[in-house]
Design a protein that fits this description.
With 108 residues, the chain is α+β, with helices and mostly antiparallel strands. The protein has one domain: HesB-like domain (Hypothetical Protein Aq_1857, Chain: A). The chain has two helices and nine strands, in the order βαββββαββββ. A hairpin with a 5-residue loop joins strand 2 and strand 3. The longest helix is centred in the N-terminal third of the chain and has 13 residues.
């Protein structure tokens, strides 16, 4: 299961309002090959379920992961930072053995 912080929920809700996404949309979180540590995070909004998708919900936000990503992201917390040192979604992944300096990629 992936959880989200209150700040991440606020930002997700804001994006959904700005983009006029209805209740059929959910947050799709995935892992892709690439980045300086080998694997990188991907976050999108989607309204089409794919075979093998795994769903969870936290703070009223529906979160979708494909089966491969689920294995890498189980227990991950999604946060949002709007501070001076950077703005955007951040992944706090207990499965990552190493992350790059920018926090955008990891390895297990």
């Amino acid at each position: 299961m992936v959880t989200i912080t209150d700040k991440a929920k606020e930002r997700i809700d804001q994006i959904m309002r700005e983009e006029n996404y209805d209740q059929n949309y959910f947050v799709r979180v995935a892992v892709e090959s690439g980045g300086c540590s080998g694997l990188s995070y991907k976050l999108d909004f989607d309204n089409e379920e794919k075979k093998g998708d795994q769903f969870c919900e936290d703070k009223g936000v529906k979160i979708c992961l494909d089966i491969k990503s689920y294995l890498y992201l189980a227990g991950t917390e999604l946060d949002y930072s709007d501070g001076l040192t950077g703005k955007g979604f951040e992944f706090h992944n207990p499965n990552a053995s190493r992350t790059c300096a920018c926090g955008e990629s990891f390895s297990v």
